[in-house]
Hints:
The chain is mainly α.
Amino acid sequence: MASVPAPYRLVFLWIEPVSIVAGAVFAHFLQPTYLALTHAASAPGASVPLATSIAMTQLANLYLGLGLLEASVLRATAELSVWRSFLAVLLLADFGHLYSVRPVGVSIYWEYWRWNSMDWGNVPFVYFLAMTRMLLLLGVGFKPAAKAKHA
């Protein structure tokens, strides 16, 4: 895996998968907290409706699958074409994730002084991941031969 620079390996093999699995744990085991941190004004409180609970568990399952896929697929290969394909799809998902918080108001994207722990994960952490993906896709930090060979 020497062809993929260490900062990308740290982010995409460790930091992001661990954060995704943490999201899965919260979405399944701490549903009232997860919902209150997402939008306190519309959260149902301690008694989460059954349909919401099922949807939250399905979300947790998707998070878990995504985290395990990222950690396992990217560990299985140093082939840049696989890394780029996988991370390009996740970059599109980053934009969808950022769009998903828009209903709470566009100020969510920049009013960092109002962010709670969920907001920190939904906005600046996603900005960071999207930027890191874009840098990898642009070949930043790769040796010139690796850039030319896999561009």
